[in-house]
Design a protein that fits this description.
- The chain is mainly beta.
- Helix content is 15%, strand content 43%.
- The chain has a 16-stranded antiparallel β-barrel with strand order 13-14-15-16-17-18-19-20-21-22-23-26-27-28-29-30. A 3-stranded mixed beta sheet has the order 1-3-2.
């Protein structure tokens, strides 16, 4: 045996030249070759392709990279010469061969789009175009056109700065379901199986329908503990016509109960706090396969944990025969940072400048008393029970707020919750000063994971002083100290996917209150409701979602005389953009001065309020900058009605800086297009919060 060894020359240096858009260090990292490495042609060719791919991500579709071969052979210096070329933008997206679906329908299935001002960049990417072609093909397959084919063509302009993208479609015949055959089912009858699956005889056959049918059956069996059920949905094609016979094969497996649940990773949080989030995996009960995903989602969405994983463990070889039909569960969690002390400041067009010191513990334990000062200051005390405790100290030039809140989300590990809050509030208004001191207590119950109901008791003392002589008559009626006591019931429903930035789902809150039921200076009723709905419109190449939202809010005070400080108001950044803070609604009668007895400019609120707003929220730059278009409509009146209905339209931006907190800075411009003569308008409104 003879071994012939050919030594590869070594690189003496690696350089890049001609690049302006992508820095040297980034390109060298992509190349992955260094001085001293062997001259490997495979690695060099791969580096060229990676450079091209990186430039394509920036929109340089015709960028090219080459190697100085002469210099490499002579001295071992590897130089990548880059020709960036112009930045190519998509100017038009077209379709050829489509007769079943219109162009607009197909455009909704792809992410590539033509450039439009600063809203859409029109970036040209081969990778994305291939994904778009696959998406169109999948759409056709999902609607029965199983033989449909899709290709794409790119036509560059002479200056190579613009491109026309054309998707070429061959539609082919549409396939229908000729029959459905079910095999292997014992737990459920064939009729029950056919009722659950998505495909029906005579329907259009689709791959996604077959996948949905398979998943529906797995979940159906999973509810009875058959967590190892295997389902296959095969298709048998007819030779002479576009028909498909669907064959459903089921291997049911055993039905399992939940055995021992083990929790790991919770160094501070008590086990019961994790166990209360389990769904479909209660020890001793039949398992629900869908509970794995639900439990993981609930734990990850909890403010206590940054990650969670649920694993169904395989049975042990020497497991007790009485536990043969039990499967143990391992729940692994990663605890998040639940405690914080924040120092910051905020400024808004509605509330002026506000300073803030916030102490929050989302994993509080009121019974975990410290055994030493060290435990107290190191955060080892008062933690672990999943309770919520917050102290807010927020002084401001117009508004000051001081509060303490405690919440127990699961009283004695039941579905009942409890919250108590105390506060002190001051606000300097246009013609008087308002000061509130009091608290509230709420007890409620969750009905599943969506609905909840609660009863609330509210106690407040409201002091109205420093009243200007020309203030409204309604203000003088409540001068001095006022006592307010109320009871109320609330019903709420929440199906949103996020508390901070929802992209789908809805929130509904309905409340009925009786003011004066426990005494006090006022006696009347209040009914209010709010509804917020979110729709995901599209998701771009980077996973950023464009969201359309609808907001409806209403309130009505009736059955007695209502004080001006409790009436409904509208106007301002968080209420009705295009109008000043409390700039919408009835105006009061001047009490004194030269204009006594006449109607003034200051608002006194109304017993009836109805607001409707629509907002279109879209990404502009990375995760940092988003834009909004919106319209706000509604009215505030003394009586129920829509006589004085207002409408405003506007646009704005949302700026999110990661190291400055989760909430984005909001800047909006709005113009009223329907208003009343007495309304106070405002073109620009904003809300900025800065942590120190």
């Amino acid at each position: 045996v003879t071994y012939t060894v050919v030594e590869l020359p070594l690189l003496s240096d690696v350089q890049v030249v001609g690049n302006k858009t992508v820095p040297d260090l980034e390109l060298l990292g992509i190349i992955g070759l260094r001085a001293g490495d062997p001259v490997d042609r495979f690695l060099i060719d791969r580096a060229i392709q990676e450079i091209k791919r990186r430039y394509e991500q920036e929109g340089y579709f015709v960028a090219d990279a080459s190697v100085d071969e002469a210099l490499l052979n002579e001295s071992g210096i590897l130089i990548f010469r880059i020709r960036e070329g112009p930045k190519v933008k998509i100017r038009s997206v077209r379709f050829e061969g489509n007769t079943v679906y219109k162009d607009n329908e197909l455009k909704s299935k792809i992410r590539s789009s033509a450039a439009f001002l600063f809203f859409k960049k029109g970036t040209l990417s081969r990778e994305q175009l291939d994904a778009d072609a696959a998406s169109i093909r999948s759409f056709y397959h999902d609607t029965g056109y199983l033989d449909a084919r899709v290709a794409r063509r790119i036509d560059l302009s002479p200056d190579q700065q613009d491109a026309i993208v054309t998707f070429i479609i061959e539609e082919a015949p549409r396939y229908l379901v000729s029959g459905i055959r079910v095999e292997g089912n014992l737990v459920y009858s064939t009729a029950q199986i056919l009722e659950m699956i998505d495909l029906k005889v005579g329907d259009v056959f689709s791959r996604s329908g077959a996948d949905r049918s398979r998943q529906a059956l797995i979940e159906l069996y999973g509810k009875l503990g058959h967590i190892e059920t295997r389902v296959t949905v095969d298709s048998v094609f007819h030779e002479d016509q576009p028909l498909v016979e669907v064959v459903v094969m089921i291997v049911e497996g055993e039905s399992y109960r939940t055995g021992i649940v083990t929790i790991r990773g919770n160094t501070k949080t008590k086990d019961n706090v994790v166990l209360r989030q389990l769904r479909g995996m209660k020890p001793g009960r039949t398992m629900d396969r869908a509970g794995i995903e639900t439990t993981e989602r609930r734990l990850r969405n909890s403010p206590l944990f940054s990650d969670a994983k649920v694993t169904i463990l395989d049975p042990e070889e020497e497991q007790d025969p009485q536990r043969q039909l039990e499967r143990d569960v391992l729940v692994e969690v990663a605890e998040g940072n639940t405690g914080s002390i924040g120092f910051g400041a905020g400024i808004s067009s509605d509330a002026g400048i506000v300073g803030a010191i916030d102490v929050v513990q989302r994993n509080f334990d009121i019974a975990d008393l410290p055994e030493s000062w060290g435990e107290l200051f190191t955060g080892k005390a008062f933690t672990g029970a999943g309770q919520y405790m917050a102290i807010a100290i927020q002084p401001g030039n117009e508004v000051s707020n001081y509060s303490m809140t405690f919440r127990e989300p699961y009283i004695f590990e039941t579905d009942y919750f409890f919250e108590v809050r105390g506060f002190f509030f001051q606000r300097t208004r246009q013609d008087y000063d308002e000061e509130r001191f009091g608290g509230s207590m709420r007890v409620g119950q969750r009905f599943g994971d969506v609905w909840s109901g609660s009863i609330k008791l509210r106690f407040e003392n409201i002091d109205i002083d420093d009243i200007e002589p020309d203030a409204r008559v309604d203000v003088f009626r409540v001068a001095g100290t006022n006592t307010l006591r109320s009871t109320g019931i609330t019903r709420a429903r929440d199906t949103t996917d996020s508390n901070l930035f929802p992209t789908r789902g809805s929130r509904l809150t309905m409340e009925l209150s009786r003011i004066g039921g426990l005494g006090g200076d006022f006696d009347y009723n209040e009914v209010s409701a709010s509804f917020h709905k979110f729709w995901p419109i599209e998701e771009d190449f980077f996973g950023r979602v464009t969201v359309l939202s609808l907001r409806v809010q209403g309130g009505y005070l009736f059955g007695g005389s209502t004080p001006t400080f409790e009436r409904n108001y509208a106007g301002g950044h968080r209420s009705f953009r295009g109008f000043d803070y409390r700039g919408v609604g009835p105006r009061g009668i001047i009490a004194g001065g030269p204009k006594a007895g006449t109607r003034g400019d200051d608002p006194v609120g109304g017993d009836w309020m109805f607001l409707v707003g629509v907002e279109y929220n879209f990404p502009i730059y990375q995760e940092i900058l988003r834009g909004v278009f919106f319209t706000d409509t509604g009215t505030v009146q003394e009586d129920v009605g829509f006589d004085d209905y207002r409408v405003s339209v506007g646009a704005g931006i949302r700026l999110k800086v990661p190291f400055l907190g989760q909430a984005p800075f909001a800047f909006d411009f709005a113009v009223p297009i329907v208003k009343e003569d007495d309304d106070e308008t405002r073109l620009f409104s904003f809300d900025v919060a800065l942590p120190f």
